[in-house]
Prior knowledge:
By secondary structure, the chain is mainly alpha-helical. The protein is 64% helix and 6% strand. It has 19 helices and six strands. A hairpin with a 2-residue loop joins β3 (54-58) and β4 (61-65). The longest helix is centred in the middle third of the chain and has 44 residues, at 258-301.
Amino acid sequence: MGKYQEDARELLAAVGGRENIAAVSHCVTRMRFVLNDPAKADVPRIEKIKSAKGTFTQAGQFQVIIGNTVNDFYNDFVAVSGIEGVSKDAVKSAAKQNQNRAQKVMSALAEIFAPLIPIMITGGLILGFRNCIDSMYLLENGTKTLVEVSQFWSGVDSFLWLIGEAIFHMLPVCICWSVTKKMGTTESLGIVLGLTLVSGQLLNAYSVATTAAADIPKWDFGFVQVNMIGYQAQVIPAMLAAFTLVYLEKFFRKICPAVISMIVVPFCSLVLSVMAAHFVLGPIGWAIGSAVSSAVYAGISGPFRVIFGAIFGFVYAPLVITGLHHMSNAIDLQLVADFGGTMLWPMIALSNIAQGSAVLGMIYLQRKNAAAQEVNVPSCISCYLGVTEPAMFGVNLKYNFPFLCGMIGSAIAGVVCTATSTTANSVGVGGLPGILSIQPASMLSFAICMVIAIVIPFVLTVIMGKKKGVA
Length: 471
């Protein structure tokens, strides 16, 4: 008999029984259910189960927080329920039955950008390290950098740019691949489409602004000329091109006889999507991306930036609950492409830290409550490392006031963050390690913001908790 079989039986009954489960899987810390009727889930009953740390619903999935032992719990649940578990992708697919149109769009965006986050974190760390050794004048009375005085570090700096350039300049390749993977079409066609957007035959996107119009290379078709411009680091042009490829491939597969589909479908889909990308969608996508990033940048850096910081810092945590926060990934990447860094992402990291600090306050308040600490401590640690769901859904939203205290601390940190123009090289780890992705000139200001995001939510949570008699 498994360790969690009794709790698993209780959870099975609390979610409405076997007949109410359309699909079940698990991730690192949570059981993920797709329920035929979500209203049948008895949340108060579930929260009384010893192994359950909390519940929440997101993207059509009813999720129960178990913790690091979720794999053992899942195995026992499958055994007692007699339900065959499925993959996370299958659960996501089944969850669409419980999603409205907006949720489906947000879920699609999340699944497209999620595979890109590890490379963006890596790229941000590489840029941060390179900035430290080639842009900080710390040697010979502040006149030279480490790269200028050491051949070894000069070589390291040059070598690391091989990786950095691949990540940021070739980003459209990853986006096109991810879109085709998400939409279930031919991934190799997506890769080739992405490569045509960053080909060495094209004028590099970073050189467009400094190149005279007459010097931009062109394809000359006799009756019309088209600029040969690359889309290095561009997000929206790549997404538009990739979705066009997806649509064309599905269209040609539908109308083309099977006997010639192997020839006609990939050829027509790829050629037409590349034409659409360079002739129409690329310029339009570039304009849209630039407009969006310019509007966000104006809000972050303009005369009302502290108001922007306060509002964004306050509402980001609620955005996580709705799933709307996934839009920020695309905006961050566009800001990096257009302005060489993002002032939006530091506030995201600070919001995560603030929610973790609210849990830290609960740890202090409930220091004599061993059962509560089983949830509080791991939730706080994971939140400080960038995984916010256990903290938000397992602790802060359960009591409500810690969630609000975290929002207030995040808003105040956001004010200081925007007032000091704190900038990150790219997306990083959304917690305490996030400082490694901050540009060297902004590290001190970000450290100050981190202190604010730690102290204020902690103090507010303790004060409010004592007034409410939480222990």
